[in-house]
Design a protein that fits this description.
The chain has 525 residues and is an alpha/beta fold. It contains 17 helices and 18 strands. α1 packs antiparallel against α15. The chain starts with 7 loop residues before the first helix and ends with a strand.
Amino acid sequence: MTKSKSYPMAEAVRDAYQRGEEDEALEPLVLVDEFGNPLGRIQNGDYVIFYDLRGEREIELTRAFVDEAFPHFDRTAMAVPFVTMIEYAQDLPVKVAFPPEGEVRNTLSEVVSRHGLQQIKVSETEKSIHVSYFLNGKREAPFPGERLVAVPSPDVDNYAAMPEMSAGAVAGAVVDALHDPELDLIVANFVNVDVVGHIEDREAVIRAVEEVDRRIGEVVAAAQVAGVTSLITADHGTVERWLYPDGTVDTGHTDSLVPFVLVDPRLSGVMLREGGALTDVAPTILKLLNLPQPADMTGRSLISIGLPESRTRVLLVIADGWGSSDETFGNLILEAETPVMDALLETCTNTRLAAAGKPVGMPPGTVGNSEAGHSHIGAGRRIPADRVRIDEAIEDGSFFQNEALLWAMRGAKRDGGRLHLLGIVSFYSSHGSVAHLDALLEMTRREGVPEVYHHAMLGRRGERVGSGAHYIEGVEKEMDRLGVGIEVSVIGRFWSLDREENWDRIEKTYRWLVEGRGRPVSRSY
């Protein structure tokens, strides 16, 4: 690969690849001056714009900067005016550039609760937020009659070492819930295929798929004994298209359809319509529960004919990352031994659902993600993604008049401080886009912000090998073109975007940003 000595941070990332590191877990890199002093550290009075989306992985690092009573590690005493691109949590003392447009009301869980029914969600901690916060329309508190069981995920450095994760314990908790006749809706979330599918380890992915298949068999069998109707689907695809056409590994999400299977011998006459989307799951469940569908839940039940009037209890199984495709090349779902799902698809009523792009509030042609998937399963209607709102604001120019962003940029200019841009660097990630960073850099040029520093997070999910260095070089080139900003820091998202209270990782990121702890990179690299 041709080296580019004029872009030091990109070159440093390429050298990290040679040391055996990869984007996701890249050790921190820090630009230094000729005396070895780190450049562009976050200091007292500096302004920060954290431009990531989603938020559930960004909360911990944000708290490390803005929570006065932060208890998890010692910090430098300083005040840092902070802006987040979207709302990460309601209690964070920050300005929000694109606040929520309003709580999503009349979600599946809210309707079930309002009618006095009991419900339980079971997942493991690695992704339990998806069946609580996102499935409930970004509501943090549970509804009356709703319980969450968050089974601890295994404490391992790499889930490839334990691709079974805690699926067995999740299945056990679901079986226990099925034995409780007071529970009308049970949601089971198996996360393995999505989580392990982001790791370049074919054997581990196969084991993850087979584990989920095995556990689906356990909970569906228990549901049949308990007289509960089972529905099986996924939030998006991942490993059914695990290879690029040239044979290299694609660890990202896909735009594939996902399965939807109805399992209940008593409902053998029920027919499912074609052409549905994840927005149709909630209306289908409400129909099975014999509950009225709210007017603002605009999805349509997938059950076309044959449903009795009586209410049935429902088990919803969400197998994260289990896409559905007939293409055999690179399809690890088809390569794995999946006797349970094979039999269910052969003998039970089933269809396929759209789980990517416009049907789940994303730009046309884009891949699905867990936030959009679970949000649309729960909401039963299309919800425009934050990414779409921001993209539209950039296109129509309102982005450059955003009150919160201007507050940070003009504050830094007025106070003689510095502005720090912090976030993911990727062409397409559910956590953000390099296009948003480019717009922020253009905005700092227009506003004449004198000192602008960028701190990059990398994570190759759905990107080709070496993409991190490619994107960092692109950012450095754009800064040169605009005449604004310096790329001063790069780190793997494993350290910075945590959501399981691994505070050692967040401390490592904090000290990278504030103290410059990391591998030094000379400006003349």
